[in-house]
Amino acid sequence: GYYQHKVKDFREGKGQDPSGLNQAVSKLSVTPAAQQKQQEILKQVEQPFVPKEPPPEFEFIADPPSISALDLDIVKLTAQFVARNGRAFLTQLMNREQRNFQFDFLRPQHSLFQYFTKLLEQYTKVLIPPKSMQQRLRDEAKSANSVLEQVKYRAEWLKYQEAQKA
Fold this sequence. Notes:
Layout: H1 2-11, H2 19-27, H3 32-45, H4 69-85, H5 87-96, H6 113-127, H7 131-142, H8 144-165
Helix pairs in contact: 4-5, 4-6
């Protein structure tokens, strides 16, 4: 929320005045060879971004609904316990708490059921990760460059999408 607001302010020109930064940069003396290298790097960076396909969706993000903190905790903890103890636990819980209004989100017609299901999937992936995810995490842990490339691609994709909307 706060950072999104600050980014929006900066884009609209309401951000902090960067003139102090420009003065500090202008005081630095740079050799001609370093300037030439900077220009080459800038040319590489300024190459136009051509999107191939959208970046993969984030796997572990679920925006919480506007409900009380107690209800949100109940939904989250229930999803954690079901992920840990399996579907049989969910069935027993549904039978035991069928008259308890705090567990109404276990019914498919309830508005929080989709949120509960998404949390359940995410907790299950964390507690019992698939082999492919484990391998991908190992590979990404070994190579910070691959992670940086993914981040850069996502940022460029978002910038491209925003330019298309404008």
